[in-house]
Design a protein that fits this description.
With about 700 residues, the chain is an alpha+beta fold. Helix content is about 20%, strand content about 30%.
């Protein structure tokens, strides 16, 4: 999925893909077609919604009437509602918190238990917030979006509530210790907003303050200081970006030793930022490079991920992109211009930084080593860093699930295509790991294996991909195959245990491919930068190359090959659909960008100029016209029949791209399926039943196209 301002957000929420090709974007027309369908940009307009309802009904008569749909939906819902799925832990006020949805709690509950109880097979959970009851009380279709809690942990949190899954949310103050919303506490009405605690009675707030306070991307650029008991309209302005910024967001970094810094992050564009410290005396700009990201603090050392080479002022040393460095908080506060970093992690030719978190006394880092998950514990001693590798098997992804800054406990989660996800409880002081919870097997893997293979892209670049296949497949091109990739925003695509994929596709004879194409972060910032703006065709050539490699190996053929991707991956699907229509038989396009000549005017599109380029620069406009799927549709071309999915409540990419693309297909008398659900935001649904139906419809489609 497209991120708001950080590469660490979650990516594809609901499916997988496949693609190939023979045409090149240079052969695509740069002539711009008249845009007849701007009326569909009226997201909730009567005329637009009448069109949506008609297309939904037409497609449902085929896909949802297929006798396999009901079976697949029931199977998917059983997986999604399984009581044995892993309850993701979060440390708060000495206890474990978890958000949970099931058949009884459609919108979900926030619940808690002790760590000791959590580690048992049947934890003693206590409900803290019932979101279904809250939605009924407020007569709102609330979708919970998590907690923003004051540190250190006295339990005051801002609860994020979204209308139907939108990025815009309402914030209400809640006390974890009393289990109640705070009477006369902080309440922030609906807006796209970012908030951080300065202390228990003070917030820094970036939100829609009225006319002229939101960026062209639709995010706030004015930060105000808001005191408890003060009317919101009397909050005091402390920082102002510009309307051309992506957004300005305040946040706080702390450590277990009592150090704290309030940060204002000005997103000049999606990948470049200005970092300032907020103090009662004003803000101080810190001379870190534009392409960087902060990852917390330990022992007064602030961690900065470098996404460009950096030579600090007055130093002769250049720190390479992909490094994680540390800056001393006290020294930075005294002199924010002349910084003296120490190196924590430096990438190799194959191993690249992914994420970091801190416990009370140690630093956790995850990396990818040729797309193999790795994890380390780092210890700080007198400006030096030592590390110990955690025991993570190959062919698994590893991520930090939760870390506790009041002691050295942490959870990491491991997962693989055929390996059920596990939560491991770690102690950073002893570097020990022990199993906390493991998901029971959700599908039959006895006849399945995983391989990591490579394709060669047009420019000679080696592109790795994962293949999940049956042991006894025939290499005759007959295997129904679904291929997925993302290819953007420095997001890494790694192995994942997906019971929906397993039950609805692999168990039924399907093959799956995950391609690690350029644009992602699997091989560091350079892997991402290789596909920026007018270089983006490399991403599409990588995807094509993986598809061609599948043909060469006779794993599959155009008749049996399907592709799927969401958001930026939906753009990838649209490009491959228009550039190489002869290369596959099924295309699922999810919550996509497709009109690249108007994407900057749609929803939050202006925030992604750093990734795609802008139509205001002639060279970039020409390239965008040449790849824009909406612009490249041709009435004289034979296309596969795609399935296009979106949600009305998606206020990030918006449903507009999907609508206009489908309308032009309709104009050209090209067949397609269309599904637009109301709730869900930039995701497959707001509740588990909606998500199950979305997945069942997509695998019904794949079954019809690739297996029948």
């Amino acid at each position: 999925m497209l991120l708001r301002s950080s590469k660490t957000a979650v990516v594809i929420a609901f499916a997988f893909a496949t693609t190939l090709g023979s045409l090149h974007a240079s052969a695509q027309s740069t002539t711009e077609q008249p845009d007849k369908y701007q009326w569909l940009e009226d997201v909730s307009g009567e005329k637009a919604m009448a069109w949506v309802n008609e297309e939904n009904a037409r497609s449902a008569k085929v896909l949802q009437a297929d006798p396999r749909f009901a079976v697949l939906a029931e199977t998917a819902l059983k997986v999604l509602e399984s009581p044995t799925r892993l309850p993701t832990p979060d440390f708060h006020v000495g206890e474990i918190y978890n958000t949970w949805q099931d058949a009884e709690h459609v919108r979900g509950i926030l619940r808690k238990t002790s760590l000791e109880s959590y580690l048992t097979s049947k934890p003693d959970w206590h409900t803290v917030i019932d979101y279904d009851a809250l939605a009924a009380k407020d007569n709102q279709k609330w979708v919970q979006k998590g907690l923003n809690c004051l540190y250190p942990g006295n339990g005051l949190c801002l609860v994020s509530l979204s209308d139907g899954g939108e990025d815009a949310d309402t914030l209400r103050e809640f006390d974890l210790k009393t289990g109640d919303f705070v009477k006369n506490g902080f309440v922030l009405p609906k807006s796209k907003q970012d908030v951080t605690w300065v202390d228990k009675d003070t917030l820094l707030v970036a939100r829609n303050w009225g006319d002229g306070t939101m960026t062209q991307s639709g995010y706030p650029f004015v930060v105000k200081l808001w005191k408890r008991g003060q009317p919101l309209d009397q909050a005091t302005e402390v920082y102002r970006g510009t309307p051309t910024d992506v957004q300005v967001a305040p946040f706080t970094i702390n450590d277990g030793q009592g150090h704290s810094a309030v940060v204002i992050d000005r997103g000049v564009n999606f990948f470049e930022r200005e970092i300032s410290f907020y103090t009662p005396g004003g803000t101080k700009k810190i001379s870190v490079p534009g392409k960087c990201q902060l990852h917390g603090m330990l022992d007064g050392q602030i961690f900065v991920e470098l996404n460009e080479d950096w030579k600090p002022n007055g130093l002769s040393t250049t720190f390479p992109q992909g490094s994680l460095i540390a800056l001393d908080l006290e020294a930075v506060t005294k002199d924010p211009v002349h910084l003296k970093p120490t190196v924590v992690f430096t990438p190799t030719s194959q191993e690249f930084f992914q994420d970091a978190a801190t416990t009370k006394s140690h630093l956790l880092i995850t990396t990818l080593d040729h797309v193999q998950g790795r994890a380390y514990i780092y210890t700080h001693d007198k400006n030096t860093w030592t590390r110990k590798k955690l025991d993570i098997p190959d062919n698994l992804s590893v991520e930090i699930a939760s870390a506790n800054s009041s002691d050295d406990k942490f959870f990491v989660q491991t997962t693989g295509f055929l390996t059920p996800s596990s939560l491991l409880l770690g102690d950073a002081a002893s570097t020990g790991l022990k199993s906390a919870k493991t998901l029971p097997a959700q599908f039959d893997t006895s006849n399945l294996i995983v391989e990591q293979l490579e394709a060669t892209s047009k420019d000679g670049t080696k592109v790795p991909y994962f293949l999940v296949r049956h042991k006894d497949i025939k290499y005759d091109g007959s295997n129904p195959t679904v291929m997925n990739a993302y290819g953007g925003f420095q997001v890494s695509m790694t192995p994942l245990y997906n019971p929906i994929l397993g039950k609805l596709w692999l168990e039924r004879g399907g093959t799956f491919v995950l391609a690690n194409i350029r644009g992602g972060g699997e091989f560091g910032p350079a892997w991402h930068e290789a596909g920026l703006k007018t270089h983006r065709e490399r991403i599409y050539e990588d995807f094509t190359a993986v598809g061609q490699d599948l043909f060469t190996r006779k794993i599959t053929s155009p008749r049996r090959l399907g592709i799927v991707g969401g958001s930026n991956g939906g753009l990838l699907m649209g490009v491959e659909f228009t550039q190489h229509p002869e290369m596959w038989n099924a295309v699922v396009i999810q919550v996509p960008l497709l009109d690249m000549l108007r994407y900057e005017q749609i929803a939050a599109g202006a925030s992604w100029v750093g990734e795609y380029g802008t139509v205001t620069i002639p060279e970039e406009r020409k390239f965008l016209a040449s790849i824009s799927p909406y612009n490249q549709l041709n009435p004289n071309t034979n296309y596969p029949e795609p399935l296009i999915f979106t949600t009305t409540k998606d206020d990030r990419v918006g449903p507009v791209h999907a609508r206009k693309f489908a309308a032009r297909l309709e104009e050209f008398h090209k067949p397609f399926f269309y599904d637009e659900i109301i709730e869900g935001g930039h995701a497959p649904g707001a509740n588990l039943k909606e998500q199950a139906n979305t997945r069942a419809e997509q695998y019904t489609y794949f079954t019809r196209k690739l297996m029948d």
